[in-house]
Design brief:
Layout lengths: L6 H9 L1 H17 L3 H4 L8 H15 L8 H13 L8 H11 L2 H6 L5 H20 L8 H12 L16 E2 L5 E2 L1 H14 L17 H8 E6 L3 E6 L4 H28 L8 E6 L6 E6 L7 H8 L7 E6 L3 E6 H5 L8 E2 H8 L4 E6 L4 H7 L8 E7 L14 H4 L2 H7 L6 E4 L1 H7 L3 H5 L1 H7 L4 E10 L5 E3 L4 E9 L3 H5 L1
Parallel strand pairs: 4-5, 6-7, 6-10, 10-11, 11-12, 12-15
Antiparallel strand pairs: 1-2, 3-4, 7-8, 8-9, 13-14, 13-15
Helix pairs in contact: 1-2, 1-5, 2-5, 4-5, 4-10, 5-9, 5-10, 6-8, 8-9, 9-10, 10-12, 11-12, 16-18
Length: 495
């Protein structure tokens, strides 16, 4: 297989050094400009020059031997589009106001009267990119109006647009040099390469600590996108069912994009893409893992404990109220045992135990006070691989001020949970009250999910909470996995 690293860039340098110098100049100009996306989208995946370089890298590999059939204008337009396709994400507020009416139709504005600047940029950033290219073409030293139109069109087409529409996307566009540029091929390449950039190296700022989101954590769990001769392979490193479900949904979107782009290229161009499949493979992890259940259950809650013992996923430790320590951790096997004295670890000392594990799954079915204590320890945050909380209510409440009792017991702990940017799944009162009548099942619901994730529906949602512990869906809130329903008949069949 040929060396594809910077192949299009190297070929352009040989064919037209002037075009190559323009590309390098634009990369420098965009280095700071693209960083501005963080002003509106601080918790989004990377949209900087690093992402542009990844898009180019994928294009080089996908193109393969077809690179020899591309002329200098096609190479120039492809590379420039890779750099410029997301410039609309880094738009300034002044440019947004200036370009808004050119980009957003009056029909859309009537249907979405409450959209704010953030929502609009996210929905239309591809079209803002097109307008930004038109406006700043002289700054980018784009050599002709034809080049400007082609780059703007290919950049805009990295999402949503109809690549089969011959009026919008002509099969060819002639350049001043006399070269024909095959636009559908370049547009399909950029669209596919943009979607392929979903692995952890797109978010290098994710490390051992710091603010994350479930979206970044999902991408971080995709350790690598491997390209083989006939397929793309995602290497996955997570045992967390909520994150894995997000990855499956992302993979389905990627499969749709791949099929669409393959079809566009086959039907509208003389080129082909060799990779037509997408596979997932799990990396075998050697992480040391532990599951903790923080609960108000007593040792004499035999029915609930018996249910737990029937599940494939069981806690290693339980954290329970303690008259002397406030809370204590006990090995689950000891907690269920009727004989002997139980080894009780004061919760204040339990952190030292947890620090011996690489991945901690923490489940709460009561107040969040103990969990909030852990969340104040910076060194614990990277170890908390999954937090599963039974509490809160969206439209169903059992306390004053439209609250749910677990969250109302410690509202500040809820606020802490919704601020640390970890992998959080919430099972609200809306589900436990409307889907489950057995109180023993309610006590173990998150464990039931970890044992049978396919029976639950979780949606990525942003939540906020107030001083009473009331929770509400809010576009500016913390991203969590929110359980919205349970498969009909599952509870009766399994319990």
């Amino acid at each position: 297989m040929r060396d594809t690293e910077f192949y299009c860039e190297r070929k352009l340098e040989k064919l037209n050094p002037g075009y190559s110098r323009i590309v390098k100049s634009v990369a420098v100009v965009l280095f700071n400009a693209l960083e501005k996306y963080k002003l509106f989208f601080p918790d989004f995946t990377d949209h900087t020059v690093l992402h542009s370089l990844h898009v180019l890298e994928f294009c080089n590999v996908i193109i393969g031997d077809c690179a020899d059939e591309l002329n200098e204008d096609e190479l120039f337009i492809l590379i420039m589009s890779a750099y410029l396709h997301d410039c609309g994400m880094g738009i300034t507020e002044d440019n947004y106001k200036e370009l808004y009416e050119r980009v957003v139709s009056s029909e859309y504005r009537l249907k979405h009267p409450h959209d704010n600047i953030k929502d609009t940029i996210r929905s239309f950033h591809h079209s803002f990119s097109k307008q930004m290219i038109y406006k700043y073409a002289p700054l980018f030293d784009i050599p002709s109006e034809q080049h400007m139109q082609a780059i703007a069109l290919v950049s805009e087409s990295h999402r949503k647009t109809d690549l089969f529409d011959e009026h919008y996307m002509p099969a060819e566009m002639m350049m001043p040099s006399g070269n024909a540029v095959r636009l559908p091929y370049l547009a399909a390449l950029i669209r596919l390469a943009d979607e392929l950039d979903i692995a952890s190296d797109r978010n290098l700022e994710i490390g051992d600590a710091g603010q994350q989101t479930i979206f970044k954590l999902m991408h971080h769990a995709i350790r690598r996108m491997r390209i083989e001769e006939d397929r793309f392979v995602l290497e996955i490193d997570t045992d967390d069912p909520a994150l894995y479900d997000d990855i499956l949904q992302e993979t389905d979107k990627l499969k749709e994009t791949l099929a669409y782009c393959v079809s566009v290229i086959e039907r509208r161009t003389p080129f082909r893409i060799a990779q037509t499949k997408i596979d997932l493979t799990r990396i075998v992890s050697d992480k040391k893992k532990v599951i903790v259940l923080d609960t108000d259950m007593r040792a004499d809650d035999t029915a609930a404990l018996s249910l737990i013992n029937t599940l494939p996923v069981k806690p290693d430790y339980v954290v329970v109220p303690h008259p002397q320590y406030g809370a204590a951790a006990i090995l689950f096997s000891d907690y269920c045992s009727e004989a002997g004295t139980k080894n009780e670890i004061p919760f204040a000392q339990f952190e030292a135990v947890l620090s011996g594990f690489d991945a901690v799954t923490y489940i709460t079915t009561g107040a969040l006070t103990n969990l909030a204590q852990l969340l104040t320890k910076e060194e614990m945050l990277p170890r908390l691989s999954g937090i599963y909380v039974m509490g809160g209510g969206i439209q169903t409440f059992n306390g004053e001020n439209e609250t749910e009792s677990n969250f109302a017991r410690d509202p500040q702990a809820v606020k802490k949970l919704l601020s640390v940017g970890l992998n959080v799944a919430i099972f609200p009162l809306d589900v436990t009250e409307n889907s489950i009548s057995d109180t023993n099942v309610k006590k173990i619901l998150p464990l039931l999910y970890l044992s049978h994730p396919d029976a639950f529906v979780l949606q990525d949602t942003r939540l906020v909470s107030d001083k009473y512990g009331h929770t509400a869906i809010d576009g500016d809130g913390e991203a969590v996995h929110l359980c919205t329903s349970i498969k009909d008949g599952f509870i009766q069949e399994s319990c």
